[in-house]
Specification:
- With 29 residues, the protein is mainly α.
- It has helices spanning 2-14, 18-28.
- Helix content is 83%, strand content 0%.
Length: 29
């Protein structure tokens, strides 16, 4: 679970649309 959280955070930082990615990640989790 920790690994997935870290990966999601990295994707959010690198993604041009952090809001969309963050919402999707939180919903998936």
């Amino acid at each position: 679970m920790n690994n997935k959280a870290v990966t999601t955070s990295t994707v959010v930082v690198f993604s041009p649309k952090p809001l969309t990615v963050q919402h999707g990640g939180i919903r998936i989790i």
